[in-house]
């Protein structure tokens, strides 16, 4: 995608070929900054502090962490230590474990002298495959938006509601939930996005709105609790969200608040789609409510907020009454029964075990 006319991915190797650069997402929307990563420790910190976030991007970044480990010490012990450190950074997004498994299978059988070069090749392939997957998701999701547009007036926009950031900032490029939106916009279909602010980290207001604005997509930021009201009044045509982990049965884990959007969509007859790259499917688990670990993040994300003053200064302030306890579960699980369909790189898939297994038999076999 483009920022100020220049094309960017969210992560890319530097000219030396032995370090990578990322867009620091903790600086949005007030600054656009690039950070260089040089070590496993840098990668682990970037994932844990959410300089990079979004399940696909977390996986891609972790893959480069293995590259740094193999550059420093190509022993099996160093590989084990690096994978353990990276896996511990965030518990919910299954792409992290998937990418580490891919890297481990690729380098472990090789002589130690060959592991570093192989690691860099595989990490680059993971990134390229993520871009291809997201483009395919975009094409399949575009047909959903196109069909809705055909039922409306010639100049009436298709109103899409999304939650959190499942845009190109959450992936290597294109995004998952936003890929159909970008393709619809670029093909001339009138489209408008209702952007949930997504408390407590405000990924919608800070990230999704920022990237939609840079691409020229009409959008409106709304409070998280406004979505149901808009659906009741016919102002939402479709909900499209991303996911950090999806079970073999089609339960979907996404940013906290997604479940409430799904309930409102079901009550109002609004289709609820989940953009789902296949590495996000966890065929080893079936019950999302029981089996998916939900990350509990710092309460300071709820009790404090960062913003820009009228004078242009960026400050963090406390917004919760002093002495109050604060809880911060980062994700919730939407049961498969509330999902209209899963937009995957292989088409629209029903949120059922049979449909997912038929669409991705190779993933079932490897689970």
TrEMBL record:
GO terms for biological process: L-methionine salvage from methylthioadenosine. The keyword Isomerase applies. Its EC number is 5.3.1.23. InterPro entries: IF-2B-related, IF-M1Pi, IF_2B-like_C, Initiation_fac_2B_a/b/d, M1Pi_N, NagB/RpiA_transferase-like. GO terms for molecular function: S-methyl-5-thioribose-1-phosphate isomerase activity. It catalyses: 5-(methylsulfanyl)-alpha-D-ribose 1-phosphate = 5-(methylsulfanyl)-D-ribulose 1-phosphate; 5-deoxy-alpha-D-ribose 1-phosphate = 5-deoxy-D-ribulose 1-phosphate. Keywords: Amino-acid biosynthesis, Isomerase, Methionine biosynthesis. Pathway: Amino-acid biosynthesis; L-methionine biosynthesis via salvage pathway; L-methionine from S-methyl-5-thio-alpha-D-ribose 1-phosphate: step 1/6. The keyword Amino-acid biosynthesis applies. Pfam families: IF-2B. Catalyzes the interconversion of methylthioribose-1-phosphate (MTR-1-P) into methylthioribulose-1-phosphate (MTRu-1-P). Also catalyzes the interconversion of 5-deoxyribose 1-phosphate and 5-deoxyribulose 1-phosphate. Part of a bifunctional DHAP-shunt salvage pathway for SAM by-products. HAMAP family: Salvage_MtnA. Belongs to the EIF-2B alpha/beta/delta subunits family. MtnA subfamily. This is Methylthioribose-1-phosphate isomerase. It comes from Polymorphum gilvum (strain LMG 25793 / CGMCC 1.9160 / SL003B-26A1). The gene is mtnA.
């Amino acid at each position: 995608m483009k920022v100020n006319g220049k094309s960017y991915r969210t992560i890319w190797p530097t000219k030396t070929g032995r370090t990578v650069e990322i867009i620091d997402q903790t600086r949005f929307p007030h600054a656009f900054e690039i950070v260089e990563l040089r070590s496993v420790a840098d990668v682990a910190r970037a994932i844990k502090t959410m300089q990079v976030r979004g399940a696909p991007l977390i996986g891609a970044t972790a893959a480069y962490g293995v590259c740094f480990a193999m550059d420093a010490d190509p022993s099996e012990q160093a590989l084990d230590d690096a994978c353990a450190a990276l896996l511990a950074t965030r518990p919910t997004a299954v792409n992290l474990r998937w990418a580490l498994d891919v890297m481990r299978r690729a380098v472990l059988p090789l002589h130690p002298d060959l592991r570093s070069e192989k690691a860099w090749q595989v990490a680059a392939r993971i990134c390229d495959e993520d871009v291809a997957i997201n483009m395919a998701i975009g094409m399949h999701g575009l047909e959903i938006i196109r069909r809705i547009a055909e039922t409306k007036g010639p100049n009436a926009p298709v109103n899409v509601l999304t939650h959190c950031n499942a845009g190109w900032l959450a992936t290597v490029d294109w995004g998952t939930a936003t890929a159909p939106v970008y393709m619809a916009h670029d093909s001339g279909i009138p489209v408008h996005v209702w952007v949930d602010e997504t408390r407590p980290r405000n990924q919608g207001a800070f990230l999704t709105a920022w990237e939609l604005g840079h691409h020229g997509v009409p959008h409106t930021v709304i409070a998280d609790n406004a979505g149901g009201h808009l659906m009741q009044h016919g102002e939402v045509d479709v909900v499209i969200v991303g996911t950090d982990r999806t079970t073999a049965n089609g339960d979907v884990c996404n940013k906290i608040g997604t479940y409430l959007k799904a309930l409102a969509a079901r009550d109002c007859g609004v289709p609820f789609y989940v953009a789902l790259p296949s590495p996000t499917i966890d065929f080893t688990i079936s019950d999302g409510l029981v089996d998916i670990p939900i990350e509990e993040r710092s309460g300071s994300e709820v009790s404090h907020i960062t913003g820009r003053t009228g004078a242009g200064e960026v400050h963090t302030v406390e917004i919760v009454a002093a002495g109050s306890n604060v809880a911060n579960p980062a994700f919730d699980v939407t049961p498969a029964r509330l999902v209209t369909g899963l937009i995957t790189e292989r088409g629209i898939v029903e949120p059922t075990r049979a449909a997912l297994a038929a669409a991705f038999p190779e993933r079932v076999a490897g689970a």
